[in-house]
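JOB MANIFEST
job_type = single_chain_structure
chain_count = 1
residues = 251
[input]
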Amino acid sequence: MCLKVKEVADLVGVSIRTLHHYDEIGLLVPKEITESGYRLYSEENLETLQQILFFKELGFSLKEIKKIMNSPTFDRQKALILQREMLMEKRARVDQMITTIDKTIKHMEGEIEMTNKEKFEGIDFRHNQYEQEARKRWGDKSVDETNTKIEKMSQNERQDIAHKWDVIFKQLATLRNQSPNSQQVQEAIKEWYNFLNENFGTYSLDAFKGLGQLYIEDERFMKNIDKYGEGLATFMSEAMDFFSGNQKKQR
């Protein structure tokens, strides 16, 4: 059952205007808008909103949140695990700051002495450590470049791309028992190469080869790709390596 915007606002504790703004910038688009103009939010919308608010609590801007959540490599469960780790770190930092405040009060009352270093324990505003960790996990340049194109897409276009992505991976999964160098496999890998270049920016042959290496070096990629078939990530990496080298020879 879908909820109206006021019901969501009351449930979550955010303003209606905030939800309207999230819709306007494409961060949280309601599942449906009725003929009367009412925004209706699904269970999936609420899960997305939860994720957004966790990121906001950790100091991310709406622009940064949108980029991260639109990344092709974004995994909601892994994001929740990371957010928990970040919040635990934040809690430890807040606890340290409270301890520093308590010690400072005692220092002012003459009960204890504090060094200059102790006066600033738990205080560090030089960078957003949570943003750095997220960027490290989901990529920086790749996230930015990909979202330049994704942000311009309609919901239907995004669904179409997701479908094509799924079809290509399923096709490659059926071929993974063949040699990565075989003609049929190489034709399928070429489809993947063309798909990336058509939808996610320009991939040089070296970048395409590097992406294939990432499939086996980063366990997150390997796990997600191998959902289509055991060993698919390694198979694709080898096929992409051969494709890149072979295309260079032909040029």
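[summary]
The mean pLDDT is 83.
The first helix runs from residue 5 to 12.
exit_status = 0
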